[in-house]
Design a protein that fits this description.
Layout (H helix, E strand, L loop, with lengths): L1 H28 L11 E2 L1 H4 L3 E3 L2 E3 L8 E2 L7 E3 L3 H9 L5 E6 L4 H15 L6 E6 L4 H6 L7 E6 L2 E7 L4 H12 L1
Helix pairs in contact: 4-6
Length: 181
């Protein structure tokens, strides 16, 4: 029984390591901002799957594939790492609502979709960044997050407002209007 449990933990660790490796690979090859002409298509050079070898990732497979995308205006994104947070939140010209949450947090599962819906209603006047505190503990510490959900309003790189816990739609609308100005 103990061996089976240990094997299950090892399998989970392997899957987590694979997801982390894939995330790092994708953030290194897929641009964060659309090219000059928008997202027309991404060539397979960007999205090719690397071959696995015991020494690590090497080479790129052939033949090439092309992924065609449609232009989607998303007002919500997941923060990938510290530099991503700096680039897309702190350096943003658009006001940003930052939702610090956790997968295990019940209230976060209620607030997150409610907040996303309210941000989408603002038609690009504000964007929403989602930060999982278990993945980005350093950001949670830096922004003094001691409970989840914690929501920050950031404008021109500065925290201008904050709340902790669940809010109803009227309270969220007032929070966003105050941020937008």
């Amino acid at each position: 029984m103990e061996t089976h449990f240990k094997r299950a933990i090892d399998d989970d660790d392997d899957r987590m390591a694979q997801r982390l490796l894939l995330r790092r690979f994708l953030t290194s090859v897929v641009p964060r901002k659309p090219p000059q002409g928008g997202w027309a298509s991404l060539t397979s050079r960007t999205l090719q799957t690397p071959k696995y070898s015991p020494g690590g990732l090497t080479g790129m497979p052939s033949p090439a594939r092309t992924l065609h995308t449609t232009r989607v205006c998303s007002t919500t994104f997941n923060v990938q790492d510290g530099p991503d947070f700096q680039d897309r939140v702190v350096n943003s010209e658009t006001p940003v609502v930052v939702d610090f949450h956790a997968q295990w947090c019940g209230p976060c599962k209620i607030l997150g979709p409610r907040l996303e819906k309210m941000v989408a209603k603002q038609h690009g006047k504000v964007v929403m960044a989602k930060v999982d505190i278990d993945d980005h503990t350093d950001l949670a510490i830096e922004y003094e997050v001691s409970a989840v959900p914690t929501v920050l309003a950031i404008k021109n790189g500065d925290v201008v407002d904050k709340f902790v816990g669940i809010k109803d739609e009227d309270q969220l609308e007032a929070f966003l209007k105050k941020l937008i100005g």
